[in-house]
Amino acid sequence: MIKVTVWNEFAHEKTDERVKNIYPNGIHKAIADFLQDDEVTVRTATLDDPECGLTDDVLNDTDVLIWWGHMRHGDVPDEVVERCKQAVLKGMGVIFLHSAHHSKLFKSLMGTTCNLCWREEGDKERVWVCDPSHPIAKGLGKYFEIEHEEMYSEPFGIPEPEKLLFIGWYEGGEAFRSGCIWHRGNGKIFYFQPGHETYRTYYNPSVQLVIKNAVRWAKSDYRVDTLDCPHVCKPGEEEK
């Protein structure tokens, strides 16, 4: 089984009727519902849970962490961010969705501002597949469309992706690197742009397929217990 933890602020759904009507049980629950299957087991965690629901025990039992955040990035305690970062470096996979580009965890792993340009007018987005051979793109055509989405556009203040999987194009003519891959330490990282809270993006079959594929890709077969530097060995001496 692949063990997934879906983390969500769970804030918009409590304060905005538009969001509550679309995701009555929270974005995290909507994602968990389509991920759960015979190969994937899913737990959820939110900002208001003790320790944000991201204790050492939870992270040690998580193969892939999915992160959705927007209005309360600054409320995530630094110690929780560092705990998650260490888990990624040890080999936990992590998927950042939509506005999670400005989460403390994503910016810490990227080491850059992660700023971008945006406009919320419900544009249609066409997401072009750059590498159809990649496992995350399995089952997709040349592109897929999202009827309404918040516009994100370049420049996007991220390190050069190790792999660019998707490029989003909007009705206003803007383009955005909407699917990007990196590795940090032993962990795999995927950023996926679609998912604004006031639109039904997470009910889109193609968006669901991308996230399902990404979970399987992000799970690592190699994970270490510690990041401590090994002791110095003399020539010919085996490390202990």
Quick gist of this model?
This protein has 240 residues and is α/β, with parallel strands linked by helices. The protein has 7 helices and 9 strands; from the N terminus they run E-H-H-H-E-H-E-H-E-H-E-E-E-E-E-H.
Characterization of the model:
This protein is an alpha/beta fold and 240 residues long. Strands 2-1-3-4-9-8-7-5-6 form a nine-stranded mixed beta sheet. The protein is globular. It has helices at residues 12-15, 17-22, 27-35, 56-60, 78-90, 104-110, 205-218; strands at 2-8, 40-46, 64-68, 93-97, 117-129, 143-153, 163-170, 175-184, 187-192. The protein contains seven helices and nine strands; from the N terminus they run E-H-H-H-E-H-E-H-E-H-E-E-E-E-E-H. Helix 5 (78-90) packs across helix 6.
Name a few traits of the molecule.
240 residues, alpha/beta, nine-stranded mixed beta sheet, 7 helices, 9 strands, 30% strand
